[in-house]
Input
Amino acid sequence: MTNIYSITGAGSNIGNCIIEHLSEKESDLHLYSTQSSSFAMKNNLFYNKILNYENLKIPQNSNKLLVCNGEFQFGKFDGNSAKLIADLVHANFTVVLQIINQFLKATDNVKTRDIYILGSTAAYDLGPNVSVYAASKYALKGFVTSINKEYFDSDTRFTLISFGTVNNDMGLKVPNQIPGTLLDSRQIGEQISEILENKKDSFQPEIVLRRRFTQSH
Output
């Protein structure tokens, strides 16, 4: 069976790494991002550069959704403005639910559907200086638990894939990181693409990919 993916936040570093691996499979990729993607353009992929994630044109026959959306900010909570707090919650939680809602309404609820959300180990560690980001990612854990129960009698399943700090622009916002301990974005992209392409009769609601050596901050 050829998987038909809808991937949002496709212009992100991790999104691009996942897409690069998925493009080698027998799958159709429909990509959505507010950013441009040179890889998608070079490889003639269905790339939709959009202004926001409202009113997405998701194919009715799409059977897999991958949500890569998110924004990260490092710093003391009392240094955040009201707007920054609202923006972080929107980018990491609200817009994710809005995308999933659109996908469920646009696609066939009788067929097998898999929804994957990229999370963060910040939701498990709940460390300092990332409180709004961590709380938003923690909320995704609650959503996945609840929505899987809601869709228990269907063939629609939801998975949260969380991973540690990556050696990219987002990960390096955390100060004093030792680059050699950070996760490699290409390796993470490969691991996640293998999870997405799982053809076994099984599913995992939560998957956590951690750094072997984690630094405190």
Summary: The CA atoms of residues 60 and 107 lie 4 Å apart. DSSP finds six helices and seven strands in the chain. The chain has one domain: 3-209.
